[in-house]
Amino acid sequence: MTSKAEGDGDGNEQINEQAVANLYGSMRAEMNQLYSKITELEMEMSEHSLVIGTIQLLDPSRRCFRMIGGMLVERTIKEVLPAVQRNKEGLEEVISRLNEALEKKKNEIAELEAKYKIRIRKSDGEQKDDGSQKEGSAQGVLVGPASAKE
C-alpha cells in the first residue's frame, strides 16, 4: 500500500506539472488572442482615420453612404463625420483597455515563469528552420546569375 502512496505522489507531481503546463499554455493563448484583437482593432481604427481625413475636406452638405449593421444608408457628411469620430474614439479606448489587459497577462505569465522556473526550449524542428533560413539567405545570393541570361 505504501508503494501506491509513493506512486500517487509521483502522479501528483506529474499532474501538477501538467496542470502548470496547461495553465501556461492557456495563458499564452489568451495573450496571443489579445495581440490579435488589438491588431484587428488598430487596423479598423486606421480605416476610420483614413475616412475622417478624406471626408473632412469635403462639403458638409455632400451626400455619402455609410454601412450600418449590414445596411447601406445615405446620409450627409455633416451627419456621418461626428459618428465616425465617436467610433474612432471608442476604438482608441478599447485598444487602451486591451493593452492594459495584455500587460497584466504578460506580468502573470512572467510570474508563472519565475514561480515554476519555466523556460521555453526550441524543438528540433524549430532549430532546423533556423538553419534553413541561413541557407535560404545564401541561396538568395545564388539566384543572381539567372539575370545573366538577358
UniProtKB/TrEMBL annotation:
Residues 121-150 are annotated as: Disordered. The keyword Chaperone applies. Residues 121-133 have a biased composition (Basic and acidic residues). It holds the Pfam family Prefoldin_2. Keywords: Chaperone. InterPro entries: PFD2, PFD_beta-like, Prefoldin. One of its GO terms (cellular component) is prefoldin complex. GO terms for biological process: protein folding; response to cold. GO terms for molecular function: unfolded protein binding. Belongs to the prefoldin subunit beta family. This is Prefoldin subunit 2. It comes from Tetracentron sinense. The lineage of its organism: Eukaryota, Viridiplantae, Streptophyta, Embryophyta, Tracheophyta.
